[in-house]
Amino acid sequence: MNEQATWMENNDKHLAATVAWIHLRLERLAARTDDKKNPSIPDNAAIEQTHQEKVKREDSELPPALVLLGNALGLSEFDRHVLALCVAMELNTKTASLCANAQDNRDKPYPTFALAFALFDDPDWGALSPHSPLRYWRLLEINQPGAQPLTGAALVADERIVNYLKGLNYLDDR
């Protein structure tokens, strides 16, 4: 297998592990917001196992696109997690319902900063700043209609960024 094919395989496995890790965390958060006891709550071991797979891929000799992008643009770990959450929406249709359940609101089938603050262990309020890498480089779009708070606004990964993270690198006509 050539280096490009090896990189592509590692990148795909990293994205799959990242999406699986995010889904397990969303399921656990949704179970915590549910008043009923839920026997299908993902245990910490399953979450840790998928996290270790993700980290293994990140530490590869040929790092995945999310790591390369994060290093190039100065993304914090929280920034990377938020971006990965937004990209998961594009890569797996199950993510929307998991986001709605985790936010205990069927009208919010999308990532928000508030969801990210509750979901990840390393929340950083600085990510909301227009000068933060996520917003400065326009890696994601914020859909904030009317008087909706910034933390509750829908977050969407930029199409160009989603494609880059999938291994498609092309010039953007913008």
Task: Provide a concise account of the structure shown.
The chain is mainly α.
Characterise the protein shown here.
- The protein has helices spanning 3-33, 44-58, 65-73, 77-91, 94-102, 113-119, 133-136, 159-165; strands at 140-143, 154-157.
- It has 174 residues and is mainly alpha-helical.
- The chain has one domain (3-165).
- Strands 1-2 form a two-stranded antiparallel sheet.
- It comes from hydrothermal vent metagenome.
- Residues 34-58 are annotated as: Disordered.
- Residues 47-174 form the Winged helix domain.
**Model regions low in confidence, pLDDT < 50 over at least 5 residues:** none
Overall body shape: globular
The description of the largest β-sheet is: 2 strands, antiparallel
- The total of helices stands at 8
Protein name: ATPase, AAA family
Domain Winged helix: 47-174
Region (Disordered): 34-58
Pfam family, one: WHD
Write the SSE topology:
Layout: H1 3-33, H2 44-58, H3 65-73, H4 77-91, H5 94-102, H6 113-119, H7 133-136, E1 140-143, E2 154-157, H8 159-165
Antiparallel strand pairs: 1-2
Helix pairs in contact: 1-2, 1-4, 1-5
Please name the defining characteristics of this protein.
single chain, 174 residues, mainly alpha, two-stranded antiparallel ribbon, globular, ATPase, AAA family, WHD
